[in-house]
Design a protein that fits this description.
This protein is α/β, with parallel strands linked by helices. The chain contains 15 helices and 20 strands.
C-alpha cells in the first residue's frame, strides 16, 4: 500500500499518445505522475473522484499570443477553464523581447497585438523576459518562441526593406542570445507589413544561428491565399536552413476562390513531411482574427471589430455598422479606428474540418487576450474540438482529439516530460466530462467560460476545480535547455 499526494480515482485514462482509453487511477507525488492502474488500496492526501470522467494530459496550446497575459492575468482563466496547462508564446514573429520601446516611441504593428503601452512590459533581452516570467509565475507553463519581427524592430532602422548583411548578423546575435536564455525557437510573420519586405534569404540567414540548438521554427506564412504553395515552400526552406522542425501556423485558405484547396495544401505538406519534420496548428472556427487591416476586407464576408484604442465603444460591433454610424466607408472607418483589432469571416467549413483532421495538425487557439471583445477561440478552442468536432460531428476519435492537443504537440515542440499520462511525466492533468464538454463563447458573448472541465492540475498542483481557479501559481517556464535533457 502506497501513499501519494494526489490520487485521481476511477477515471478513464486517455493518455495523449493516441492509443485506446483504459480505466484506471493516476497517482501523483510532487510534480510527477508516479503510478497508473488499479490503485484501490493506496491512499493520498487529496483524492479526486473521476468516475465517469476522462483523465487526459493537460492540454498544450500550440499557438498563443499569451506573452503578456501570463503576467498581466496570472490566473490565466481563458486557458485553465479549457484544460490548458502549457502555452507556446511568441508566435507570428511577435514577442515581448528582445525589443523595448524608448519613452514615447509607438509600438509598431503587429507587435502591438500584445498591448499598446510601450513602456513597462517589453524587454531588451530574452533572458530578462524569461526571468520576469519566472519571478512572478502564472497558473500555467510557458514555452517561448522569439519573434523575427521583434528582431527586425530591434536590429533595423527601418522596416520597409530587407535586412542588410550587417543587420542579419545583428539579428543572429539576438537570436543566439534568446536561444541561450531558453527560448524554444523562432517564429516569423512575413504576412505582416513589418516583416513582408524580409526576403527568404534574410529569414534563412537569421535562423542559421539556431542550427544545433534543437530549436523549432513556427511560420505565419507570407501568403495564405493565392500564393500559399510558394509561401509554404518558403517556410519549409527557412526551417531547413535552421535545421529545425517546421510549424505552419494556423493553416487556412483565404478567399472564396481558394476554398477547397486544403486538399492540395495538405497533400503538399504530407510530401514535405517525408524529408523534414513539418506540423501545423489550427483553430476550430471559420473566422480569423488579427489587427484591423484593409486588405482583409475584400476577402471577408463579415468583419467584427475586437478592439479600438480611440473608439473602445465600438469593440464587438460589425465594421459595416460602425462605418455607417460614422458616415464613413469601411476603408476610412479602418483608419479612424486604429490601432485596432478585428475578426474576419474568410474560411470554408470543409477546409477547417479537413485541416483539423489531418494527422500532423495540432490544436492551437491563436487567441488574442488583450482584445476587449476577442475572437471566441480565446475561451473556446479546446472544448470546441472535443465537444463540437469530436463528439457531435464525429470528425475524429476522442483519443485522436486529445493527441492533437497533448502528445503530438509536446513531441513536435520538443517539450520532454509533457503531454502524456505515464509514470515519470510531469503531472499536468485535465479531468473532463466527454459528454458535457462544450464551448460556450460565441461571437456575441466571446468570453463565456466553457463547460465540462472538472479539474486541472499543473505540475502536480490543483489549479482549477469546479469552474474556478484555485489561485495556485505553479506554472513554469519550459526552457530549451530543459528540452535538451530527458
Ligand atoms: Zn499568425
Amino acid at each position: 500500500m502506497a501513499h501519494y499526494d494526489v490520487l485521481i480515482r476511477h477515471g478513464t485514462v486517455v493518455d495523449g499518445t493516441g492509443s485506446g482509453r483504459r480505466r484506471g487511477d493516476v497517482a501523483i507525488r510532487g510534480d510527477r505522475i508516479v503510478a497508473l492502474g488499479a490503485l484501490d488500496t493506496d491512499t493520498a492526501d487529496t483524492v479526486i473522484d473521476a468516475t465517469g470522467r476522462i483523465v487526459a494530459p493537460g492540454f498544450i496550446d500550440s499557438h498563443t499570443h499569451d506573452d503578456r497575459y501570463l503576467t498581466a492575468t496570472p490566473q490565466m482563466p481563458a486557458k485553465l477553464s479549457q484544460g490548458v496547462t502549457t502555452v507556446i508564446t511568441g508566435n507570428c514573429g511577435i514577442s515581448l523581447a528582445p525589443w523595448k520601446a524608448r519613452a514615447g516611441q509607438p509600438v509598431p504593428q503587429p507587435l502591438n497585438l500584445l498591448g499598446d503601452d510601450p513602456a513597462d512590459f517589453r524587454f531588451d533581452t530574452f533572458a530578462a523576459y524569461l526571468a520576469d516570467l519566472e519571478s512572478r509565475p502564472s497558473a500555467v507553463n510557458a514555452a517561448c518562441l522569439v519573434g523575427h519581427t521583434a528582431l527586425r524592430v530591434a536590429a533595423m532602422e527601418r522596416l520597409d526593406r530587407s535586412a542588410t548583411d550587417a543587420e542579419i548578423e545583428a539579428m543572429r546575435g539576438l537570436l543566439r542570445e534568446a536561444m541561450d536564455a531558453g527560448a524554444i525557437g523562432l517564429s516569423t510573420g512575413a504576412a505582416y507589413p513589418a516583416a513582408m519586405p524580409a526576403s527568404t534569404a534574410e529569414m534563412a540567414g537569421v535562423i542559421e544561428a539556431m542550427r544545433g540548438t534543437g530549436g523549432v521554427y513556427a511560420s505565419h506564412i507570407r501568403d495564405e491565399s493565392d500564393r500559399i504553395f510558394e509561401a509554404m515552400d518558403e517556410a519549409i526552406a527557412v526551417g531547413a536552413a535552421g535545421d529545425a522542425p517546421v510549424v505552419l501556423s494556423h493553416h487556412k485558405l483565404i478567399g472564396k476562390h481558394n476554398h477547397g484547396r486544403s486538399v492540395q495544401t495538405l497533400a503538399h505538406i504530407a510530401r514535405a513531411m517525408q524529408t523534414q519534420p513539418v506540423a501545423l496548428d489550427a483553430y476550430p472556427y471559420t473566422a480569423g482574427s488579427t489587427v484591423l487591416r484593409k486588405d482583409r476586407l475584400p476577402v471577408s464576408s463579415r468583419v467584427i471589430v475586437t478592439k479600438s484604442v480611440p473608439h473602445p465603444e465600438h469593440a464587438g460591433r460589425d465594421l459595416d455598422d460602425i462605418a455607417r454610424d460614422m458616415g464613413l466607408s469601411p476603408e476610412d472607418a479602418v483608419d479612424a479606428l486604429q490601432p485596432a483589432g478585428a475578426i474576419y469571416f474568410l474560411m470554408d467549413e470543409q477546409d477547417v474540418q479537413r485541416i483539423l483532421k489531418f494527422p500532423a495538425t495540432m490544436v492551437g487557439s491563436d487567441g488574442i487576450p488583450h482584445d476587449s471583445a476577442p475572437h471566441p477561440r480565446l475561451w473556446g478552442t479546446f472544448p470546441r474540438v472535443l465537444g463540437h468536432y469530436c463528439r457531435d460531428v464525429g470528425l475524429f476519435t476522442l483519443e485522436e482529439a486529445v493527441h492533437k492537443m497533448t502528445g503530438l504537440t509536446a513531441t513536435h515542440f520538443r517539450l520532454p516530460g509533457r503531454g502524456r499520462i505515464a509514470p515519470g511525466y510531469f503531472a499536468d492533468v485535465t479531468v473532463f466530462d466527454a459528454g458535457g464538454i462544450a464551448d460556450l463563447a460565441t461571437w456575441d458573448q466571446p468570453t463565456r467560460q466553457a463547460a465540462g472541465i472538472d479539474a486541472v492540475l499543473v505540475n502536480g498542483a490543483i489549479a482549477w476545480r469546479d469552474g474556478a481557479g484555485t489561485e495556485v501559481y505553479g506554472g513554469r517556464v519550459i526552457r530549451r535547455s530543459d528540452a535538451a535533457v530527458g
